[in-house]
Here is the input.
Amino acid sequence: MKISILSRNKKLYSTQRLADVAKQRGHQVDVINHLKCYMDIASHRPSVHSMGKKLPIYDAVIPRIGASVTEYGTAVLRQFEMIGTYPLNESVAITRSRDKLRALQILARAGIGLPLTGFASSPDNTQDLINIVGGAPLVLKLTKSTQGKGVILAQTQKAAEALIDAFRELDANFLVQEFIAEAGGSDIRCFVIGEKVVAAIKRTAREGEFRSNLHRGGTATLVKLTPEERSTVVRAAQKMGLNVSGVDILRSNHGPVVLEVNSSPGLEGVEKATGRDIAGLIIEFIEKNAKPNRTRTRGEG
Here is the structure.
């Protein structure tokens, strides 16, 4: 098979692992910087170009699109979908998951457990917004935050009001969520491929930090999921429309709650913590499922 990986840096752990494993399994692999791609948008001959050349027709494309370039990256991915290339994750599913508010609304509509969450625009709503999530302490989260950036814990009512006012002054879109104290500074990253949870790790924040992201010094250990947690995670991934995802959950007093569904989860932390060949499982999934024009949306919406 001919496989393209959309990534701005071929030396990143996840990109390199996917490329190496695919080559070991006999596939031809090209790592393509999606920001250097440009497109011929024509109904009868859509194509993708890069560095002065028209790219070949690939059997499958693996998007590793950073959150900061979601709009252009998914536009390039849509072009591959129009050509008929099989996408590991579709452009519509990626944009859906990257919009935190939209993603939470989709999950809520499906009855999937979530932290109490509020969203507002007018400063007149501040007090009621805080009340919706049960008061302080609470978490404020920029809708475009990644890797724990733009996520702040407000310990008191006054701190919450001040932070909400400050975010509004910046014209920033943000969510207000309840703080799940019983999680003890830990969350669970579940790696989902198809309809299976193939790995799960418990991420614990370093001392003095409430964000458990490994990029922020958190530690990772193996964890066993309950049947309810496993079901919640798989349903969340399916509702986003993602074939491969990292679903982050918290263990609350009222069951598992989903924090986020990540469309481009990193492989390093989960592979090193679990010893599982996640990259190999992803390439195996592509081998079983990649067929021309096998895209639900064909680059639509």
